[in-house]
Amino acid sequence: MKKITILGSTGSIGTNALKVIEGKSNQFEVLAISGYSNLNLLLEQIEKFDPKYICIGDESKANLLKSKYPDKEIYFGDEGLKAMGALDEADIVLTAISGAVGIEATVEAIKKEKRIALANKETMVAAGEYINKLLKKYPKAEIIPVDSEHSALFQSMQGSRKEEVQTLIITASGGTFRGKTLEELKDVTVEQALKHPNWSMGKKITIDSSTLVNKGLEVIEAHMLFGIDYENIEVLVHPQSIIHSMVEFKDSSIIAQIGVPDMKLPIQYSFTYPSRESNIVLERLNLKKLKELTFSQVDNEVFKGVQLAFEAGKTGKTMPCVFNSANEIAVELFLKGKIKFLEIYEIIEEAMKSHQIEEIESLEIIKKVDKETRKWVYENYGRN
Ligand code: NDP
Ligand code: MG
Question: Which ligand 1 atom sits closest to the C-alpha of 205?
Answer without folding.
Answer: 34
